[in-house]
What does this fold into?
Amino acid sequence: MEDLLTYLKEKGIDRSFSVLGLDPFSLFPEKNRKAATERYGQHEWLVKTVPKVGTIINAVPPNDKIDELPWEEWYILEGVNHHHVLYLKEPAKYDELFEAPDADDVHPPRTLGRNWYVIDDPDMSPVLLR
It folds into this structure.
């Protein structure tokens, strides 16, 4: 991928962040543009619309790094923004364990059938850019 922000614009993912009340240009600022592309350019970006939740934005690391890098998702539930950071390996602290079903219409297919350690992160910024 040549440039993450260009990709997010082309796919309309920037508008999905706006639907959630988040500014993609603040999340992925110009000064971090190269780092954002290096760290998130190989991620699979998926936007789903789900009943009761609405828009969910997912950034899933490539298969060869899924064991070490987090899957991130942003959404609004009951009027509150959420940023989940999910790991396959147990981190020092986490909020819950998500046992992903083998199939559903909500989560990215590559995340299904696995157990994920979930951090409900109050910071909406992408973890790999901190």
Q: What stands out?
A: The two ends are 21 Å apart (CA to CA). The mean pLDDT is 97. The first helix runs from residue 4 to 10. The CA atoms of residues 104 and 112 lie 8 Å apart.
